[in-house]
Amino acid sequence: MADVIADMLSDVPPEMGTIFLGMLAGLAAAAQLLTRRKDAAASTWLAGADQPGKQAYEHFAAWYSVVWMGAFGVIIAAQLYEQFTEVEYLGVLGGLALPLFLQPVLAPAQAERSLPFWKRYGFKANAWIWIYSFIGNYWYTHYFFSVLKANYTFPSWRLNYVPFCLYLATHFYFSSYHVLSNALLRKVATTYAAGPARWVFSALMVLCLSYATAFMETFTIAGFPYYTFENRSMAYTVGSAFYGIYFIYSFPMFFLLDERSYGPARTLYETVVDACGCGMLILTTLDLVRLALSIPLTIPGSLWELVH
């Protein structure tokens, strides 16, 4: 295990330290302009009792993050994946995604139990994340194949050449990421007075969090040998910025879903439209970056196939 960690750290380019120090310095400078709210004692990380559905979902997703991360840690550390076929990959990753899908049905907030399941916050949040992650896998992954020369080499059933088990894995990955971003954005919104300074700080925080999230995922999965890059150093530095484009849009947009202080609750239809709109913004930005780099987009494979 120590050797694996040492190998992972050896691949991290030294300029990553400079990048993260620069981000922290920028946030610290922007924080000096913030003014605390008069009711800042009521500041909070997770949704409060006035948003019971959102509170129940965020608490569940936060605690469940420990479960799936622990499971991944065991699988990577013990190299259990070496015994996996396409069946085990689909079963394990699908099994880890299932509790999140079931939360709005089996463990909703008490105040939401009388509502049809499609009106519960947890169902809308899952729909939002599923649409967002589905679009990401179906479309955005090909930008990683083309721009960063990424490749998956483990056995899997593939939809549009992307392992279908990863459509399921990104659901619980992204659920955790967005609960974290919700907590940070809410903490800022409930602690500091509204105005240009808070807007600038929040925007800068989203940019930094997006980059850091992308880097940490790339780094922590480096111990899995069947997800490769042509140049891992570039994947950490440039690739994290490229991947971070996903979250620059999705973190603030997901936060607004049924956030009481920003407007009324969304219907399921409005939630679906919002997620699709977010997906289109990301796709357009990724393609603009690709065009600016003069890199052709190549999409191989079939609609559905088994790749060993």
TrEMBL record:
Matching entries from InterPro entries are given as: Cycloeucalenol_cycloisomerase (IPR020532)
**Gene Ontology molecular functions:** cycloeucalenol cycloisomerase activity
Q: Which domain of life is it from?
A: Eukaryota
Keywords of this entry: Membrane, Transmembrane, Transmembrane helix
TM segment ranges: 16-34, 61-81, 87-109, 121-141, 161-180, 201-227, 233-257
Query: What is the name attached to this protein's record?
Result: Cycloeucalenol cycloisomerase
